[in-house]
Design brief:
Elements lengths: L1 E5 L2 H14 L5 H12 L13 E6 L10 E7 L5 E3 L4 H13 L6 E4 L1 H15 L3 E12 L12 E4 L5 H15 L8 H9 L4 E6 L2 E8 L6 E8 L9 H15 L4 E7 L3 H9 L2 E12 L7
Parallel strand pairs: 4-5, 10-11
Antiparallel strand pairs: 1-2, 2-3, 3-4, 5-12, 6-11, 6-12, 7-8, 8-9, 9-10
Helix pairs in contact: 1-2, 3-4, 5-6
Length: about 300
């Protein structure tokens, strides 16, 4: 029994896809990112020393056995490794495996207890320290409620004409969220969303004032994000309205579950989403690792 890793998304999904779909909400990030990798791996180019890596834990005894999958991970540098819920010792084993491969790792995204177990083993193996980068809450849409009062303006699906503006907004969102994407190609990310109608904007008097995106539907599930309004346009309900509009589009498109993540440090966003019908599912934490190597 133990962890197996692969660079091949098809091999990963063949082994771990059923496990991930059994808890599709909690595994939303791995499911949606592997769908992106399957369709267009160029969205996640290899970082220096490391490309996308996937893996699963199973109770199989020998190399030719399949066994029962009980955990999975995804690492697309420079983002932190995303790890499913697993026992603490299994998380620690993964950290030891990856440390032994000398794979660079900027952090871990997991259930708080799982993240701490992984980080402790990573520190023991590498000497790197861990600190909280972001505390997140996963929400699921129960019954959609339109903002009341609704703001002036209308929603529409974004088009190629919006690429430059929305690429700037994607970059601004990343800076504000302090994510680990580095110098990601935001125009490419925007165009990938446009390909399936995955970006909606709110217009007022000919001006675009807010944005909400969603992932491709996979396993009957869609995740909303990013949601962004420029600071000078906030406080008018545009984000609530465009989020409600794109959530309704996801439901109309056949999604059985509509999800989103919030930063727990942003109480305004958490209250907005609850007012339009989202309810908490679970909390996760992103721990960032220092670049300090073991001395001696």
């Amino acid at each position: 029994m133990g962890w197996r890793t692969t660079l091949d998304v098809s091999d990963f999904l063949a082994a771990a896809g059923g496990f991930l779909r059994a808890e599709r909400a909690r595994n939303t990030v791995i499911l949606t990112v592997t769908e992106q990798l399957r369709r267009n791996a160029s969205l996640y180019p290899a970082a220096p020393g490391a490309g996308p890596l996937l893996g699963w834990w199973s109770d199989a005894g020998g190399s030719g056995q399949t066994g029962t999958v009980g955990g999975a991970f995804l690492h697309t540098p420079p983002f932190p490794i995303v790890l499913t819920e697993v026992p603490a010792d299994v998380a620690a084993d993964l950290a030891a495996v990856l440390a032994g491969s000398a794979r660079p790792l900027g952090g871990v995204n997991a259930d708080p207890a799982v993240a701490r177990a992984f980080a402790g083993a990573w520190q023991a193996a590498t000497g790197c320290l861990a600190e909280v980068h972001r505390e997140q809450r996963l929400y699921r849409l129960t019954e959609l409620a339109w903002p009341d009062p609704a703001p002036a303006g209308t929603a529409r699906i974004a088009t190629e004409a919006d690429v430059d503006l929305l690429a700037d907004w994607f970059a601004a969102f990343a800076r504000e969220a302090n994510d680990m994407a580095g110098d990601a190609d935001q125009a490419a990310a925007v165009r990938e969303r446009l390909d399936y109608g995955g970006l909606m904007v709110w217009d007022l008097d000919g001006e675009t004032v807010s944005l909400a995106g969603n992932t491709r539907q996979v396993a009957g599930m869609v995740r909303i994000g990013p949601v962004y309004t420029p600071p000078e346009l906030r406080g008018h309900g545009y984000a609530s309205a465009v989020t409600a509009a794109i959530s309704r589009q996801a439901l109309t498109g056949g999604a059985e579950e509509v999800l989103l993540y919030t930063d727990l440090a942003n109480p305004v966003a958490n209250s907005i989403y609850q007012r339009i019908g989202y309810r908490p599912v679970e909390d996760r934490v992103v721990l960032a690792f220092s670049a300090t190597d073991r001395v001696g």
